[in-house]
Amino acid sequence: MEALALGIPDNKIISSKVFQIPCFDFKRYASLRENPVTILSDDCWGGKVYRELDLPFTSPLINIYWPRESFCEFIKDPFFYLRKPLHMVRDGVPRESAFPIGRLGDENRSVELHFVHSKSSQEAKEHWNQRVKRINEDRLFVKFAFEASDPRQEEYLSAFGKLTCPKICAYPGETDEKDKDVFYSKMFERDWYYKKRLETWEFRVWFLQVENFKKAVDLLKLLNGEKDYRREE
What we know:
The chain is of the alpha/beta class. Helices cover 35% and strands 13% of the residues. The strands form 2 sheets. It has a 4-stranded parallel sheet. The chain has a 3-stranded antiparallel sheet with strand order 2-3-4. α7 (153-161) links the parallel β5 and β6. It is globular. The protein starts with a helix and ends in a 10-residue tail after the last helix.
C-alpha cells in the first residue's frame, strides 16, 4: 500500500514472499512480470503457480478441472477453443455439491470444462470472460498430468509431444529418455511410503501440491522454457 501511495505502478511491486522461492532468480522472475505467461493447465496447478509467484492471472483456466479427453483435444488447437464463446451447460447447486459445467467449440467439435470452485454459472462465466481478455498468445505454457494406467495415455502423450511451447507433463510411466518435458519425481515414492498414503494417491495429485512441485522443479526456469528445470537427478 505504501508503494502504491508513492506512485509506484502495481506491476512493478514485488511481494517479499517470492524471494523465498527455491532457486529464485530475479532476471527470470522479471521476465515473467514483464512478459506474462498464460498457463494452460488441466487442473488447479496453474492457479497455484500464479499465486505462489504473485503473478496476475493471465489465463482463464483458473480453478478449472478438465476431463482428460477434453483437455487433450483442447491443447491440439487451443486458440480455436479460446476464441469461441463459453456456453454453460449446467448450473452449480452448492447444496448438492454440483459445480457448473461449460463447453467451448461448435457443433462439430467441443470440449467440456468443470468449474469446480464456482458457485454458479454466472460466476464461472464472469471470471472466464474477464480472464480470457488477459491471454498472452505469444507466451503459452501447458501443464498436463495423468497416470500410466490411463487407457488413453498414448493419445495424450502424442498430443502433448506435438506442442511447441514450453510445457510439462506429470506422468509416471515409461517415456523416451530424450523427452525432457515429461516429468516424474522419485520423491513421490518416498513421500508415499513414509506418509503411508493410500494406494489411490496418484502422482498427478502429489504434483498438484505446491510444496511438492517446488521441491521437484525450478519453477522460474520451467516457465521461462529452460530445459534444465529439474531439481533432482
